[in-house]
Amino acid sequence: MSEIDEKSRELIKTRIISKMQDIKSFPQFVLETMRKLNDPESNASDVAKSLSRDEGLVLRILKLANSAAYGMSRNISNISEAIALLGYKSVSNIILAATVYSAMDKGLSGYALDRGELWRHSLMVAYTSRHLAQLTDAVSAEDAYVGGLLHDIGKVVLNDYVRFGYGIIVKMVEEKHIPFTEAEWQVLGFDHAMIGDILVEKWGMPEGYHIAVAYHHKPNELPEDKKQFQPLLDVVTVANNICLMLGIGLGADGLQAYMFPETVERLGIKNFESLLSEMIDFAGNVSMDMGDMAGL
């Protein structure tokens, strides 16, 4: 296959749009719980009542509340108490991670990713984004975590179509020296960042996450009227590229990853090499979280 004709391209676009429409939104109890977590009038008991519909999430939250990280001298077995201890932001992130896990924990042959690799990469980017946010004080650490977790969600939808046009896409990358995402767009009419943005909007997520997903491969092209989201975008972009440089979730498109020096400069990172070596330690945390999630 040397090229895709216009008729085939339009058919692909139609099928991609149809597939996005078929993807379910978050379960109702998840949306309800997230609303309660964002409601200043709600309390831990309100959140616990909504969350109690999912035993796996309850167990995960209790496990985290009793972990060494919180140094509690007694065992916490009450979910309301665990929610109060962890804080709404942490609980919200646990729910989000558990909800997208099933979509991400599968093989994506179009991107040359074995089962679990997209999930591992996304978790690692989430951890790294949170660490960068804390290090630079550029943006909320919890917002950075969510942006990092969701940045590649579009690959789940686009995988089958990338697989169909893989030979053409790779040839364009090699011959035209363009990014993989640009080749995706030229061949399919979409790239995974665009698809991810549409999904995040469908799920009713805040605008900052849309930006992090849509622009993580082009951080210097953010429109002027969206510049308030530049720090979040830069954090997620740098985190993503660090993980690719470490070979975590490299896949078919990772070999063309480019570290934008402007993003590092805007975040005020002075010693990038030291930061890179620091991130290696995070890989163990990701492996632990992967095991925890798989056990739910």
Q: What distance separates the N and C termini?
A: 43 Å
Low-confidence stretches: none
* Backbone CA Rg: 20 Å
Mean pLDDT figure: 81
Number of strands: 0
Which percent band covers the strand fraction? under 5%
Biggest sheet features: none
Number of helices, where a helix is a run of at least 4 consecutive DSSP H or I residues: 17
Class inferred from helices and paired strands: mainly alpha
> How would you sum up the global shape?
globular
| Secondary-structure element order, N to C | HHHHHHHHHHHHHHHHH
Oligomeric form: single chain
Helical percent range? 55-70%
Q: Can you offer a commentary on this structure?
A:
66% of the residues lie in helices and 0% in strands. The chain has helices at 6-22, 28-37, 44-51, 55-65, 79-86, 88-104, 117-136, 141-150, 154-164, 166-176, 180-188, 192-202, 207-214, 230-245, 261-266, 272-279, 282-294. Helix 3 packs across helix 5 and helix 8 (141-150) crosses helix 14. The relative contact order is 0.12.
Please outline what is shown here.
With 296 residues, the chain is mostly helical.
Relevant terms:
17 helices; 296 residues; globular; mainly alpha
Question: What's the layout of helices and strands?
Answer:
Elements: H1 6-22, H2 28-37, H3 44-51, H4 55-65, H5 79-86, H6 88-104, H7 117-136, H8 141-150, H9 154-164, H10 166-176, H11 180-188, H12 192-202, H13 207-214, H14 230-245, H15 261-266, H16 272-279, H17 282-294
